[in-house]
Amino acid sequence: MEAATSSRIISQMNFYQNSASLRPGSRLTSTFHNTSKISLRSNSNHKTKTAITALSLSRPSKPDFVGRTFCSAGACTYSEGVIESHSQTTDEKLGVILLNLGGPDTLQDVQPFLFNLFADPDIIRLPRLFRFLQRPLAQLISVLRAPKSKEGYAAIGGGSPLRKITDEQASALKLALEAKEVCANVYVAMRYWHPFTEEAVHQIKRDKITKLVVLPLYPQYSISTTGSSIRVLRDMFRDDRYLSRLPVAIIQSWYQREGYIKSMADLIEKELQIFPTPEETMIFFSAHGVPVSYVENAGDPYRDQMEDCIFLIMQELKSRGINNDHTLAYQSRVGPVQWLKPYTDEVLVELGQQGVKSLLAVPVSFVSEHIETLEEIDMEYKELAIESGIVNWGRVPALNCTSSFITDMADAVIEALPSAMAITTSGTASEEADDDLFGYVVKMKYTVYVSTECELIAAEPFIMLL
């Protein structure tokens, strides 16, 4: 087995570690499978940066991927032999649940999909006094936003491909686990559209799963993605007698895994060969953005983990003799608040002005094709780049079902098994401060935003009511 065990895992699930995480939508049917400036960096000059948040890792000069798992209690070391020799008892039923955001299957699904998003009380957080407005607000905002969102989905074929691709990833993961003599049921759990997290969890109960591994399909942790989905699981597991006793391991982030890093490097190396002068091509990493307040006020480790991820990918490319300049920018910002910088659209214009002629876009925070790769990058940003003077444009495809990636995810699941423990919860963090009317009024000065299949949507509820 290729050793790659530095995924971060919660061995004992305390769901309140990032209290700004979000909560789910509701409907049920089941799918089940048996820095504002441009930074043009030469890789050789990139300095190691120590992560400053609880969920970030320090960058190793040479990653040690063997037998090491990052748990909530610290670094836990397992021997390589223990990982490789894992075998199931005859009465053990292993389950793996893949977390993703979901997306509308058809144009008719767009408005109800948006309603599910805005009906989430962790997206538009109202104090108890005003919670009766939650669903009316969600209905209003989703109706107003739907026409613009439909245009984007119409441009990529009339709906999101995310469910189909995630189903394929689940099937491929199941086969990869079987190849390693691990039998598991693999479930797909979407946040805001079918198959919902609730559907997957109900199926897990019906199947009498005895041990569960939670695998978010987000390489880097953010309170708006992985944290959001974990909140859903917490709410379901907390009051259920069966689920609260179920041993569970959560892989919080896995951007630093050797298999993932090498898979990304493989795709980049392959796409560079298409350019007339590969060595002169700018490698342009475009990551999904989040508001700066998430990082600076809520302690979201996303930015640190993203920078760590880019560093590791470039180190791998350098080991192959690829020393191209590269830069990282953040896409999909909306609203008046400040988002992580530099912004993708602004960077593309500046690169053109600086004389860059060849550019390879790398969507680094996505492992599946969806609206932000197929429409925003492939259409909007490509057009902007060409208008800005970039002549040769390319885009690295999402990992989807790349065999090396799927194999590494199977390894991650196996390595997580020793850390599985019953869930513990404490307090009700989501209720804290929500009853503070003054705090609520202050919050409403800012844009309320939500991640929509990774498309971010802005709304200022009081303004939109006028």
TrEMBL record:
Pathway: Porphyrin-containing compound metabolism; protoheme biosynthesis; protoheme from protoporphyrin-IX: step 1/1. CDD domains: Ferrochelatase_C, Ferrochelatase_N. It is found in: Plastid, Chloroplast. Signal peptide: none annotated. Keywords: Chloroplast, Heme biosynthesis, Iron, Lyase, Plastid, Porphyrin biosynthesis. Pfam families: Ferrochelatase. It is an enzyme of class 4 (lyase). It catalyses: heme b + 2 H(+) = protoporphyrin IX + Fe(2+). It comes from the Eukaryota. The keyword Iron applies. Its EC number is 4.98.1.1. Its main location: plastid. InterPro entries: Ferrochelatase, Ferrochelatase_AS, Ferrochelatase_C, Ferrochelatase_N. Catalyzes the ferrous insertion into protoporphyrin IX. NCBIfam families: hemH (TIGR00109). PANTHER family: FERROCHELATASE, FERROCHELATASE-1, CHLOROPLASTIC_MITOCHONDRIAL. Belongs to the ferrochelatase family. This is Ferrochelatase. The lineage of its organism: Eukaryota, Viridiplantae, Streptophyta, Embryophyta, Tracheophyta.
